[in-house]
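Worked example 2:
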Amino acid sequence: MSATGSLLSDLECRACCTRADPAGPAGVCPTCGQALLATYDLDRLEPNAWRRGLSGREPSLWKYAELLPVAATESIASLGEPTTPVIPLGAGAEFAGIDLLLKDDGGLPTGSFKARGMAVAVSRAREIGLRRLYVPSAGNAGVALAAYGARAGVRVRIYLPEDTPAPMKAAARGYGAEVRLLPGTLREVGAEARRAEQGSGSFDMSTMREPYRVEGKKTMGLEIYERMSPDRMPDAIVYPTGGGTGLVGMYKAFSELRQLGLLEKAPRLVAVQPAGCAPIVRALREGSPRAEPWESPSTIAPGLLVPAPFASERVLEAVRGSGGTGVTVSDSEIARAVGELARRHGISASPEGAATYAALPSLVREQRLRAGERVLLYNTGSGLPFVGAAWPGRDEPPSP
């Protein structure tokens, strides 16, 4: 067996300070039921040498192996996860001279950023001997688990809301996963999935209910740092927020880089949610320690239809700890943004990713983004599964 160089040391619950051994399967904190996060022995890493050495490594998320949890290269179930591009969008007058950039994860395997989390989580699951995995999903996470489960040779069961886009249902089945369709939102689907799987011996790969998907999402922040540091780091990152794992992952990446002395100031993290399902933004506005379930949730962006994010305390910690904020957008604004990104910039964006573009006018108007700042929008997935969707405002011409 060849070692990756992982510096994984243990698992930590930030809610009650419990520490757990990462050697075997781990779900939520055994003491309080909150999320466990991986920690690393950063004292064993020589920061500047590590930073210089990154440029000579294969351009994939696995180049950050020391800060990922997989110990043996033979455990890695890879589909060639590439470093994704940062695309300049320019500094249009309507955005007050902001230097606007977009990081596009639509070219990852299975077409979305969910590949990051599942690549790492499934690889670690295989390493510690798990052979049956399941996940409740709004679509993209289920497709990613199906693909990486096939790559790793493990059995996968996916629970999806009945109204999940047809291409996502077909893709999950195409990778050989068992797919079960259930009524309701992701909250109801998740509860039913966990009830059905109780005692089955299958492991729950849900957002924040196991410790390693967030480590895969952490590579978003590591890629931004490697590409843009030291003098072009964004002042703010605008991120579409459903379960919020990406925010937690990026905040964790920037925190570890600061501990290593490689980063002085982290970007502000801006959470974007649809007006019809915005539990995180509401909690930010009200100063609440956790997000309460959203009543009667609805949106055209399935990945943002998460009315009760698990471990919302960690998501709120990421936004507040970075000095960030939250904002809502309407479904019609999201639909228009999908069209504008395609026609003005040639970018195929999922409705989730387009929500970040839709949020710009209000963020600028309220001076939460300011003239002269460098702002990075995060497109979390390709728009291809949504081609042909009939949304309000979708066919309106772009702004001049």
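The mean pLDDT is 94. DSSP finds twelve helices and 13 strands in the chain.
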